[in-house]
UniProtKB/TrEMBL annotation:
Lineage: Bacteria, Bacillati, Bacillota, Negativicutes, Selenomonadales
Annotated PROSITE patterns: ABC_TRANSPORTER_1, ABC_TRANSPORTER_2
InterPro entries named among the record's database cross-references: AAA+_ATPase (IPR003593), ABC_ATPase_HisP-typ (IPR030679), ABC_transporter-like_ATP-bd (IPR003439), ABC_transporter-like_CS (IPR017871), MetN_ABC_transporter-like (IPR050086), P-loop_NTPase (IPR027417)
Superkingdom assignment: Bacteria
Record's subcellular location: Cell membrane
A molecular function (GO) term: ATP binding
Protein source organism: Selenomonas timonae
Membrane topology of the entry: Peripheral membrane protein
Keyword list, A-Z: ATP-binding, Cell membrane, Membrane, Nucleotide-binding, Transport
ABC transporter domain boundaries: 2-247
Coarse class of the protein's main subcellular location: membrane
Protein name per its UniProtKB record: Amino acid ABC transporter ATP-binding protein
One GO cellular component term: plasma membrane
C-alpha cells in the first residue's frame, strides 16, 4: 500500500528526514512515536505532498508518486494530474481538526467528493450520513464546527477524510489538542477503523493505543528510525537505549 525508500528532507540547512525507509501493507496500522521535533509530521506530510522530499522514492498503492534515479540527488515527481490521482487514495486528519468553519457538518463531508471527484450531492449524501453514523454524530449533521466539542470536531474530520474513500488514512497526533476526557471517543473511532482493517499511519503520544491498535510501531529521533517492531516486543523489550529512555519518560 505504501513504500518509502531513502527519504531525505531538509528545511534549509536543517536536515529533518535523513534516510527513512518504511513500507506498509494493506490493513496494517503503523504507529509512529518520538519526541517533538523528530520529524514525524514532516514524514506524514511528505506522503501526501504537503511537503516535497529532496530525494528518495515514494510508492502509494502501486503507483510512483516520486522517485530518484541512480546517481541523482533530487526526486522527480509524477505529473500534476498523476499526483492528484495518486493522492486521492490518502486521507489526512490533523491535530487541529481543520474543518471548514462556515460549513455545517454534512457540508464538510460533501465538499471534497463533490468538488474533487465530481460526484453530485445526492450521490454522496447517503454515504456521508453513513459515515456520520459510524463516528456517532448522526444528530449533528446540521451543526457548525463551532457548535461542537473538540472530540466531536475531530470525529467529523475523520468522517470527512473517509468520505473520499481513501485506501490509507494518515493521522497526525489526532488527540493532542483534546482535553483528556475527549481523547477516548476519538481513539475509539480510530480503533473501530483499525478493526475494519483500514490501512493507517498514526503519529501519536498515546502509548496504550499504539500498543493495542497498531500492527507495527516506529520510534523516530532526529530524522531517523531508531527502532521498529511489533507492538508487543517493542513495548515489552525495546532494544535501543534511546527507545527505553523515551518509553520510560512516557510512562
Ligand atoms: P515532529 O512532528 O516530530 O514534532 P516536525 O516534522 O514537525 O517534527 O519537525 C521536525 C523539524 O523540522 C523541527 O525542527 C521543525 O522545527 C522543523 N520544521 C518543520 N516544518 C518546517 C518548515 N516548514 N520550515 C522550517 N522548519 C520546519
Ligand atoms: Mg508533529
Amino acid at each position: 500500500m505504501l513504500s518509502m525508500r531513502g527519504i531525505h528532507k531538509s528545511f534549509g540547512a536543517l536536515g529533518v528526514l535523513k534516510g527513512i525507509d518504511l513500507s506498509l501493507a494493506r490493513g496494517e496500522v503503523l504507529a509512529i512515536i518520538g519526541s517533538s521535533g523528530s520529524g514525524k509530521s514532516t514524514l506524514l506530510r511528505c506522503i501526501n505532498k504537503l511537503e516535497t522530499i529532496d530525494c528518495g522514492d515514494i510508492t502509494i498503492n502501486g503507483e510512483r508518486l516520486c522517485w530518484t534515479k541512480d546517481g541523482e540527488r533530487a526526486a522527480t515527481y509524477a505529473s500534476n494530474a498523476d499526483v492528484r490521482r495518486i493522492l486521492m487514495s490518502t486521507g489526512m486528519v490533523f491535530q487541529q481538526f481543520n474543518l471548514f468553519p462556515h460549513m455545517t457538518v454534512i457540508e464538510n463531508l460533501i465538499e471534497a467528493p463533490c468538488h474533487v471527484k465530481g460526484q453530485t450531492r445526492d450521490e454522496i449524501l447517503p454515504y456521508a450520513r453513513e459515515l456520520l453514523a459510524k463516528v456517532g454524530l448522526s444528530d449533528r449533521e446540521n451543526y457548525y464546527p463551532s457548535q461542537l466539542s473538540g472530540g466531536q470536531q475531530q470525529r467529523v474530520a475523520i468522517a470527512r477524510a473517509l468520505a473520499m474513500k481513501p485506501d490509507i488514512m494518515l493521522f497526525d497526533e489526532p488527540t493532542s489538542a483534546l482535553d483528556p476526557e475527549l481523547t477516548g471517543e476519538v481513539l475509539r473511532t480510530m480503533r473501530a477503523l483499525a478493526a475494519e482493517r483500514m490501512t493507517m499511519i498514526v503519529v501519536t503520544h498515546e502509548m496504550a493505543f499504539a500498543r493495542e491498535a497498531a500492527t507495527h510501531v516506529i520510534f523516530m529521533e532526529n530524522g531517523v528510525i531508531v527502532e521498529q517492531g511489533a507492538p508487543t516486543e517493542f513495548f515489552s523489550a525495546p532494544k535501543e537505549e534511546r527507545t527505553k529512555e523515551f518509553l520510560r519518560n512516557m510512562l
